[in-house]
Amino acid sequence: xxxxxxxxxxxxxxxxxxxxxxxxxxxxxxxxxxxxxxxxxxxxxxxxxxxxxxxxxxxxxxxxxxxxxxxxxxxxxxxxxxxxxxxxxxxxxxxxxxxxxxxxxxxxxxxx
Amino acid sequence: xxxxxxxxxxxxxxxxxxxxxxxxxxxxxxxxxxxxxxxxxxxxxxxxxxxxxxxxxxxxxxxxxxxxxxxxxxxxxxxxxxxxxxxxxxxxxxxxxxxxxxxxxxxxxxxxxxx
Lengths: 112, 115
Known about the structure:
The structure holds two protein chains of two kinds. Chain A is 0% helix and 54% strand. Chain A is mostly beta strands. Chain B has no helices and eleven strands. In chain B, strands 2, 4, 5, 6, 9, 10 and 11 form a seven-stranded mixed beta sheet that branches. A four-stranded antiparallel beta sheet of chain B has the order 1-3-8-7, with no helix packed on it.
């Protein structure tokens, strides 16, 4: 069975600070990895995804994530956050069934 | 807007009543997923359809829950004899191609409150 662990449940930053949200997964085979974001009052939407190839994945709005297979990690990063990045962030992993398992999410608040 | 839509957006019901939710996926998408999300948790998979066939169901989907996608387009999720523990956000998502490489597009969800 696949599982996902997000280490930080609540993160508070000031604008221009750097962001790194941790995500570790558990699955024995080939995985596909996702970060989704949910802005206040909006739908869940895909931020970025990794299927194969370059382990450094770039997504929308300046976000990137790095797949480190040896650490079973897929951490999300952004060098300089903005107030508009305030949202809930979910990491997800999909193994052989292609059905993603989501982490419990990280609530990010960015102060202007 | 041609995104995933869900109806109703909010539903308040009394324990023991039946409720039904509807999801309209993006029109060309053949895969449709239902998830449940409670406060402080990520979405939990319930079931998914490829066209009209229900291919997988989570053990979270008790026998009080049933989902259909009769013509491979919209889907309904029915909960019979609701319980307070059913209170949650029910999310629908759709994707267009087989396999894991396709992105799931989520709807706004239906928030269920069971009194």
